[in-house]
């Protein structure tokens, strides 16, 4: 929001920023915009009193200007309770500034950013940016190692902190450019890549156990992730903070997004068409996934009564999509049951660290030796391989080719 000069010099007596009129109550209040509330400003609303036609409009306008000036002074000097020029203050700026890169990422990514930046703010929020040098950065790194933080955590911490440094440079915060130069000379070890993946044998056993547990939604989600090489969010969706978007499934201040819905399927449930959530900005064209080579998935879908084929496909007994983490926990529970049965049968157990996210990597690994790299890239909905992407148009065809080849092998 751009404020008029009269905010500061009172040259427009009727200028009343953030003034709200409640028609049903015939009363006035001052309410900051979302930007300042999300930055942590404590005054959510301020009752101004009076009613329409009482002749006090100029007094209320002056009061609004005074409240707005007070808020802006806080925002510039004490964002999220931190002194201006500290890392906590800059984190507040990053999360709330209108043109921050924070607003360019998907809602689910924003939630992850908020969580990690919360850890960073807690650790270094009171540290002045201008007092950040090589020695202090190394002490941060050492402190995390001394506390037993994993290599993955340390890398993630510094990656997110770099976003804050970058934003500081963009908005002209002194010393941030120097901090960036120092950070680039500090070696942060990359965590080892996860090598675990689910095999078809493991998937089949866990799906069968999910059925025995009376959790067909879990079985269907696992199969769709594995066979179509889809990320979990593109199958069963996720719950994010309700940002007042119209429509959709809502529950407890959250809205469900990104998953497969029944309106994506054709009339006879032989295929579904979907834009991939992670790459929707760079790969805007939808993928069409054929069910021709996955008869088990199609059969499971057809078992769902016609009158229930609205909204999200993967739903719980209450008719709503599973909350975040529910399917992951269900997968682990099914895995433990499978391994218990295998132990009784004197069979080697499956890896106990297997996770539901390993279903997608399992599908990719199975296909790796069966198709060429470019076909696999498109089937996996990856954006890398820009040269081949220029000449490739049928990404859906590539995806279905991979599914067909794997089906024949299975």
TrEMBL record:
The keyword Cytoplasm does not apply. Keywords: DNA recombination, DNA-binding. InterPro entries: DNA_brk_join_enz, Integrase-like_cat_sf, Integrase_recombinase_N. It comes from the Bacteria. The keyword DNA-binding applies. GO terms for biological process: DNA integration; DNA recombination. GO terms for molecular function: DNA binding. This is Tyr recombinase domain-containing protein. It comes from Tritonibacter scottomollicae. The lineage of its organism: Bacteria, Pseudomonadati, Pseudomonadota, Alphaproteobacteria, Rhodobacterales.
């Amino acid at each position: 929001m751009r404020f008029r000069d009269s905010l500061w010099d009172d040259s427009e007596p009727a200028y009343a920023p953030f003034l709200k009129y409640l028609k049903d109550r015939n009363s006035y209040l001052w309410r900051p915009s979302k930007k300042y509330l999300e930055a942590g400003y404590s005054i959510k609303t301020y009752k101004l009193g009076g009613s329409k036609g009482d002749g006090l409009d100029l007094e209320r306008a002056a009061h609004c200007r005074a409240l707005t000036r007070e808020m802006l002074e806080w925002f510039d000097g004490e964002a999220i309770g931190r002194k201006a020029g500290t890392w906590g203050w800059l984190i507040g700026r990053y999360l709330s500034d209108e043109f921050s890169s924070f607003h360019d990422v998907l809602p689910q990514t924003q939630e992850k950013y908020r969580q990690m930046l919360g850890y960073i703010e807690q650790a270094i929020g009171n540290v002045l940016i201008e007092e950040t040098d090589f020695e202090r950065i190394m002490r941060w790194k050492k402190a995390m190692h001394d506390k037993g933080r994993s290599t993955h955590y340390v890398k993630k911490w510094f990656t997110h902190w770099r976003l804050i440094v970058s934003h500081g440079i963009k908005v002209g915060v002194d010393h941030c450019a120097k901090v960036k130069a120092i950070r680039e000379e500090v070696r942060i070890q990359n965590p080892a890549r996860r090598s675990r993946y689910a095999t078809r044998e493991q998937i089949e056993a866990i799906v069968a156990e999910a059925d025995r547990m009376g959790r067909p939604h879990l079985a269907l989600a696992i199969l769709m992730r594995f066979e179509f090489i889809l990320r979990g969010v593109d199958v069963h969706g996720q719950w994010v903070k309700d940002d007042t978007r119209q429509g959709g499934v809502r529950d407890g201040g959250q809205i469900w997004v990104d998953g497969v819905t029944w309106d994506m399927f054709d009339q006879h449930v032989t295929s579904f068409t979907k834009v991939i959530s992670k790459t929707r900005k760079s790969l805007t064209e939808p993928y069409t996934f054929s069910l021709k080579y996955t008869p088990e998935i199609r059969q499971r879908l057809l078992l769902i009564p016609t009158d229930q084929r609205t909204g999200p496909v993967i739903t719980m007994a209450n008719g709503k999509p599973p909350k975040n983490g529910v399917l992951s926990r269900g997968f682990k529970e099914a895995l433990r049951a499978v391994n218990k049965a295998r132990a009784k049968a004197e069979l080697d157990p499956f890896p106990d660290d297997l996770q539901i996210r390993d279903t997608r990597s399992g599908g990719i690994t199975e296909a790796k030796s069966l198709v060429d790299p470019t076909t696999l890239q498109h089937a996996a909905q990856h954006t890398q391989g820009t040269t081949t992407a220029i000449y490739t148009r049928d990404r859906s065809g590539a995806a279905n080719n991979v599914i067909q080849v794997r089906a024949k092998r299975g």
